[in-house]
Structures are given as C-alpha cells and as structure tokens.
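Q: Okay, next protein. This is YegS/Rv2252/BmrU family lipid kinase from Sphingomicrobium lutaoense. I've checked the sequence twice, so it should be correct. Can you predict the 3D structure?
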Amino acid sequence: MTANPSRDAILVVNAMSRRGAEQYEEARRLLEEAGVRLIESHAVENGDDLRPTVRKAVKKAGMVIVGGGDGTISSFIGEFEGEDCVLAVLPMGTANSFARSLGLPLELEDVARVIAKGESRAIDIGSINGETFANVAAIGLSPLIADTIPDALKRWLGIFGYIVWAIRIAFSFSAFRLTIESEGSRTVTHASEVRIANGSFHGGVELVEEAEMDDARITVDAVTGKSMWRLALNWILVLLHLKSQKRTMIEVEAPEFWIETDPPRDISIDGEIRASTPAKVEVVPQAVRVVVPA
C-alpha cells in the first residue's frame, strides 16, 4: 500500500561519497524548488557521524532524505525499521543499485521531483549475521573487488572502473565449496559467486531479476562450477537478459538461509565488506517505508 509521505524533511548528505560533497548545495536547491520544506540539512564529512545524524533525524521528521551510495544507505537502513519516518534516497554513489531497484531516476533534478510528488512504499530489508542490508550482498569475486579496488579508479571511472578491476584480479581468484540450507532443503556445490538479493540490481546492473523488495523473501543466486570463464559467461548472459543464464547457476528463494563456504569467505553487503561465512541470512518483512515514483 502506498501513501503520500510528509513534505517536511531533513536532508543528510554523505559528503564523503563519490558526488556528495559537490552536489550538496544543488540538492538543497532542487528539493526546495520541487516543493520539499527542509527543516534541517547536514553535509556529513566524518563517517562516524553519519549514522548518529540519521538516527536523530528519524526521530524529528516525517521524512529523511539521504544522499549517498549503496554503502551509505545500507549502513543505517536499520534506523528506519518500524519507524513512522519515510526514507527518501538521493543517488550519489557509483552504482546506485538500491535506487535502481526502487525504480528511482538517477539525475538529481528528476529524483527531487519524485521525492516531492511521489508515494511511500513499505519494503523488506535483509539481515546477515545481524547486519542489516538494503539491497544486495555477495560472496566471491564481488567482495574481493570491493575490498581491493583503488579509490581513484572507482572515483574517475565509476562502474567501468569496477569492470576493469574485475578483469585484472579474476585470474587469481579461486572458486569455493558452497552449502545452502533453507526450508528443510540442503544444496552443496562449487561456486564462484553468490548473490544474496533483496533488490534486483547489483553493481548498477540488473543481476537478480526475480528479486522483489516486498515479497518477504530473499533470493540467492549462485554461479556454479570452478571456472572463472563460467562466471564471465554468466555476467554476459545476465547483461544481455538471456534466459540461458539459468544454466550457469542455481537459484533459491526463502525467508531464511544458512550459508557456509569452504574456505570461509568475506561477504560484501551493499558494496562494503561487513560480514563473513558461515552466515545466517534473514528477511525483515515490510520493515522500512521509502519514497518511490507515484
């Protein structure tokens, strides 16, 4: 169910994000011109201050508008759980996968109009070993990329920087043994990548088409086999939206999973490494209200 969110809002921008610092003033202007009344605005330059700033804002306003990337949103999404406050997203990151999964435009002027005229929608969030996440987590090559990519490459080339770095490190990466348990079933296989999806976009690309953010389930896609060429083929098939991608992976949907890998692997949660295997994965249904296009 949707409803019109409050137009009185607090703006919080991650000034450390790829575009946050340079777009802060422009975002304020565009939001006010679109009809949003900003009762407070903050450009946060210290990472330790971001979550406390959002926490205070959630208690004071009917809507909190946050500018940043996927890691920014994921780091505090739990602050909105069960609150009357609505989250509105200004995409200012590299991939902006969460915004894409919500169907939001990526240009500031366009998204400001959505925030002013859109509706609120209750969505699920995920939890991995107690760490909440908004959109997608990953095991395998993606966390290695997120952990090692040079900041300059990410800053100047954006998504293409990730692709360049992925090609560089792929040949030194090895597959792992994967165990997935859910709803009484157990799957054991070798895999090169696992995507744990609440939303459909990952790395700016629609990787998990079946994932819905309000179905009270998490979708897990695992690219099977030991070959990096098989992973590359999967990415190509996914990018081309070809159904034959299913031949390169397994897919499971459930409200809860237990995932193990041998050897243990880091888990990238919305682009930031915040957990590792073994992992308990759960969905938190209808946990947060967000602004979406009307």
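A: Here is a summary of the prediction. The radius of gyration is 19 Å. The first strand starts at residue 2 and ends at 3.
Q: Noted. On to the next one.
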